[in-house]
Amino acid sequence: MSAQVTLYTTRFCPYCVNAKRLLQHKGVDYREIPVDGDVDRRAEMAARSGRRTVPQIWIDDRHIGGFDELAALDRQGRLDPLLKLAP
């Protein structure tokens, strides 16, 4: 069973686009929660993550952070195991 991935995003954020592109490249499905103009969703994201910037990414119940952290995990070879991808 693959991991559940959730991203809080905005439409024109280049880091959001890059995060989605990386996950798509790996064939990973994700749940995207847009926070454009949605004060309640943005507040929910900030409460969950402690951060106000997008994207904010979770793999299962683990908060990864933003795109920089996601890309670092990938470079270190630690992302695929979190995503439960076969080697």
TrEMBL record:
Start and end residues of each Glutaredoxin domain: 5-64
GO biological process, one term: cellular response to oxidative stress
Statement: the UniProt record of this protein carries the keyword NAD: no
Keywords: Cytoplasm, Disulfide bond, Electron transport, Redox-active center, Transport
A molecular function (GO) term: glutathione disulfide oxidoreductase activity
Stored Pfam families: Glutaredoxin
Cross-referenced SUPFAM superfamilies: Thioredoxin-like
InterPro entries, per the entry: GLR_AS (IPR011767), Glutaredoxin (IPR002109), Glutaredoxin_subgr (IPR014025), GRX_bact (IPR011900), Thioredoxin-like_sf (IPR036249)
Superkingdom as given in the UniProt entry: Bacteria
Entry's Gene Ontology cellular component terms: cytoplasm
General function of this protein: Has a glutathione-disulfide oxidoreductase activity in the presence of NADPH and glutathione reductase. Reduces low molecular weight disulfides and proteins.
Similarity field: Belongs to the glutaredoxin family.
NCBIfam families xrefs: GRX_bact
Name under which the protein is recorded: Glutaredoxin
